[in-house]
Amino acid sequence: MKARIAIGGSVAQKPGNAGHTWQFLQYLLGFRRLGYEVMLVDSLAAADPSTWARGVDYVERTMQRHGLDGAWSVALGHGRYAGVDRVRVLEHLRASDLLLNVMGFVDDEELLAAAPFRVFLDTDPGFGQLWRELELADVFAGHDAHVTIGERIGKPDCDLPTCGLRWITTPQPVVLGEWPRVHKPPRRGFTSVASWRGAYGPIDYRGRRYGLRVHEFRRFVELPRITRCRFEPALAIDAGDAADRALLEDAGWRLLDPAAVAGTTAEYRRFIAGSAAELMIAKGIYVQTRSGWMSERSLCYLASGRPVLAQDTGLGDRYPLGEGLLAFESFDQAVTGVEEIAAHPGRHAAAARAIAEEHFDSDRVLTRLLEVV
């Protein structure tokens, strides 16, 4: 029998959000490459029943597309399941080496108890830590090990509280075979795929407000006007933020609908492949805490041979910067980075792929993660 791993995730809750989906696929496909029998453990039990059909259909089609048919389960509440039923989920968990519980999405006590080793994977560094410090929520409880992609946690100049836990740090993985280097000329300029605000609100802690992407993005609104380059991000902006949309469009941003250009995993891959580079503007909390966070989306750009201009979260501590992966803090540094990538696209494309191979290859990242935990 193959060794088993379960991934606790939230794919069904966000149908059509392919970037979010790829975050989980990198682990599922990556562990499968290492010889594991994998399973996605998902839930819509707390969702409006009218959304169940769309969420389940999205998971089913996505998992089939990636050869993971029969490797997923979505709880619907009241004993109902789509995909693998509860009995088989419990069997898989009991026989697993570990449950990698992303952001604690699996909170069913029986399922948690069935897993012999429960690993919390923190992919939103700052939120869970500050919630716990403020006694708002404790998403870390009930786990045997704690892993974060906030790779600078515990550093003297990193404001992420450790909450008294022993944190294991890791980059996120990218399955290189799923993201071959693209040699065709790009059709678009600088792009990204993101939400304007995200699922969580700002957090006030010790006299400081830790913000969201919207608060950082406004600092760089003038980039198209100053650089004369094309910026075409796929941004999910709520109708209530119409003023921000108008501000961006007036400055020369061409805003795309993520659901239209990146609604499936294949569309998401094509969108990145057709981009000249990524402009990665981070959530304020990642930047302000100097967390060392790196977007899983950026890894897909790098692997595709598309350079990344990333807002700095302390990345220089971990990764080579300057070619392929460039970082900025100020507006002027962002302008310089845009101009550098536009002037030397071939050099930065080659360096981008090399960085992905050296630092983010799923075989290396996940093998090390298993060894450490």
Secondary-structure-derived class: alpha/beta
Q: Helix count, per DSSP?
A: 15
Q: Superfamily at the CATH H level of the largest domain?
A: Glycogen Phosphorylase B
- The average pLDDT is 96
CATH class value of the largest domain:
Alpha Beta
How many distinct domains?
2
The assembly state of the depicted protein chains is: single chain
Tally of extended strands? Answer: 16
- Inertia-based shape: globular
Q: Could you describe the largest sheet, including whether it forms a barrel?
A: 8 strands, mixed
Do you know the CATH topology of the largest domain? Rossmann fold
For the record, the CATH architecture of the largest domain stands as 3-Layer(aba) Sandwich
Strand order of the largest sheet: 4-3-2-1-5-6-7-8
Strand-residue proportion: 15-25%
End-to-end Cα distance? 22 Å
Summarize the structure.
With 373 residues, the protein is an alpha/beta fold.
Structural features, described:
With 373 residues, this protein is α/β, with parallel strands linked by helices. It is 37% helix and 18% strand. It has an eight-stranded mixed sheet, sandwiched between helices. A four-stranded parallel sheet has the order 9-14-15-16. α1 crosses α10 and α12 (296-303) crosses α14. The two termini are 22 Å apart. The mean pLDDT is 96.
